[in-house]
Design goal:
This protein is an alpha+beta fold. The chain has a single domain, classed as Alpha-Beta Complex (endopeptidase fold (from Nostoc punctiforme)). It is built from five helices and six strands; from the N terminus they run βαββββααααβ. The chain has a six-stranded antiparallel β-sheet. The protein is globular and about 35 Å long. About 30% of the residues are buried.
Length: about 150
């Protein structure tokens, strides 16, 4: 499942302002309640939705319509393979400047989740490359069902 966060930090506020969105972060909620997310320390697997977030951070969880168990497994395998890869600060700068500056071995949050879904044949949005996907764009996918 996809978790979308409404962060309260100054960075989160800038992201929300820049994207005209209530969301500032995206992560993958695994079946066992753990979370895989791209965070400034790199891609990490943490114990729960708020492990790295402020307690008052609001989180909305979305299921992907029609997602099969095989696709869920493929998504999670892709994500596990990314653990330890660095955060893509340059892509965030490019995202803010609206210039492609992504690095193929680094990730930012919504790019990681979107790419993981693509790796399993789940196309959340048509004709949009992963480096252009903000948490807000993820929320606009017609395949997402709020839990």
């Amino acid at each position: 499942m996809i978790a979308l966060y409404q962060g309260r930090s100054w960075i989160s506020r800038i992201i929300r302002w820049r994207t005209w969105s209530p969301y500032s972060h995206a992560a993958w909620l695994c079946r066992d309640g753990t979370v895989i997310e791209a965070w400034p320390g790199g891609v990490q697997w943490v114990s729960g939705l708020l492990t790295q977030h402020k307690e008052q951070t609001a989180v909305e969880v979305y299921e992907i319509a029609g997602l099969t168990e095989e696709q869920r497994t493929r998504i999670e395998m892709f994500l596990v393979d990314q653990i330890g890869k660095p955060y893509d600060y340059l892509a965030i700068l490019g995202f803010m400047l609206r210039k492609p500056m992504q690095q193929p071995t680094r990730w930012f949050c919504s790019e990681l989740v979107f790419s993981a879904c693509q790796s399993a044949g789940v196309n959340l949005l048509a004709r949009i490359p992963p480096w252009k996907v903000s948490p807000d764009l993820l929320a606009l996918s017609p395949l997402l069902l709020k839990q």
